[in-house]
Every structure is written in C-alpha cells, then in structure tokens.
Amino acid sequence: MVEQARAVADVQAAAQMARMFPRDTSVAVEAMEESCGKVELADRAFFSYPRAGQTVVGGSVHLARELARCWGHMDYGVKELSRGESESEMLAFAWDLQTNARAETTFIVPHVRSRSRGGSVELTDVRDIYENNANMGARRLREMIFSVLPAWFVEQAKALCQRTLEEGDGSASLGQRVASAVAAFDELGVSRRRLEARVGRPTSEWTAGDVARIGVVYGSLQRGESRVEDEFESESVTAAQLTGEPWRGLAACATADPEMFFPSDSGRPLAALSICAACPVLEECAEFCEKIEDSTTSVSRIFGIWGGETPADRVARRRAAKRK
What we know:
By secondary structure, this protein is α+β, with helices and mostly antiparallel strands.
C-alpha cells in the first residue's frame, strides 16, 4: 500500500509540473531533430520482420522511447498484472501528462515461443518467460507511445532517421558501406547472393536507400526480432548437386527422418548429431558441404546438418580458421 500511494503521489506531482511548465513544441522538435540526426539512434529506429509473404517495417520501441523523451511530460511503461502456469496478463500504457491523453492495453502473453518453421515450444524457465513477456510488452508499449504522440511528430522523426541511415555519418563512401553491410551479413551466414535476392539487384547497383533498408533487417536480426531463415530464402542443396556422389547411399542418415537434419529451432539437435557421429561417410559429407560453400563467397550457405556440423558450427569453424 505504501508503494502504491507513493506511485500515485509521483504521478500527481509530475502532472502538476506539466501544467505549471507546459512543453515548448519548438524545443521538442529541435530535440527530436538532433536525436534523429544521430546514426546511433537511426540504426535502432526501425524494426523489420516477415509476415504473410511480405515484410513489415515500422518505428521501433527505441525510437518511441526517444521521441517520448523529446516530447516531454510523458509517462509510459509495461506491467505484468498476473502470471499463471501457462500465460501472463500484461498492461502497456502511455500518458501525456500535460494534455491527459492516455492509451493503454491489456493483453495475454502465452508462455510459448513460436518456431520459425511452424509450431511452438513451451517456456518453463523463469528467465525465458521474463524475456518473452518483455519482448511482447515492448511491442505494445511502442504502439501506445506512438498513439499518444502527435502523428506529424512521429512521421517527421521517421523521415529524419531514414535520411540519416541513407547518408550515414559521412565517414565512409557508399561503396564502403555496401562492403561493410555484406561483411556484416557474412558473419551471420548470409551470402551476397541472398542479399542481392532480397534487395532485388546486384550489390554493385545498390543505392543508399538499399543500404539503409538492409541495415534495418540487420538490426532486427541482431536484436532477435527476426531470424535469418525468416528474412532470407535458404540456399538448399539441389538434387543435381547430389547426383554423382557415391557416398550418399552409405550415409547413416539415409534411412533416418530428414526433418531431424533440418531442425526448425535453434536448439542443439543432439539426436541428429549422434547419427552423424557414427556415420561411415562423415568426412565425405563434410567435404561435399565445404565444396558447395566454397563455390560461393560467404561463411555458410547450406541449411541443415552436414558432416556432423550445424550451420552455426560451420560459421564458428571457418571464423576460427580465419583468425589463425
């Protein structure tokens, strides 16, 4: 009760200060323009994820929080109202203390995590549940803040952030920025070919806008908002490539369920790897995979387990070899 009374008193005091010292819109705009001109904010200002065959792009929660700071006299947050065995009830809100404009939403967050290739996995660890709730809560908080802020203020900020992304910080040419983008995605196992397929043209023809848009995708991948397999088509091994490989009929996986070797989640596929460990043609399989990957220009191209290695294993091995 004491904490609740203190929280109410804090809000009342903030509302009174907002009425006594109303915001200066021109100062708020100036602060917004300064923030959106910084690459550090622009890099995190947008999110990107695939849905129903299309890519959804919008302002991120990082942008929303910064705009709330610039606008001033804003209160916002996410609260977990209750937690059951299989779900949590959450509340997200944003409140303009000066105008008394308020938006809030209550929502249920199941304790499950969706898998990229369908299905879901139940969450039982407290930390996993917390992170899942925080992720879902951030999405609702973003919408609440944007619904309270003036639309023109938000749109101006997005346009400025987009311009900042396209122009960069001035320290590198467009060609250098393209090369940096290709190298950054290479670290994630995304080939130049897949990048070009996503953008729709060769990297030699990329514009500043292309670099900015692909940078948004990279930021979403880094923050865990989307996955490589969601954003880019996999470069699978074709039947034509396997033709003429005599070892394939001797592989231990020839009679196993193929789905085991193309897992949909990021966990360690121990069952599949145990089959690989006893495979008589393990080395031939690994050499075949390396040959296919070496025919391109990136760290990892092939989806699935080959030669007893996951895509992450292959990336780590080649990265370690480069450092030697």
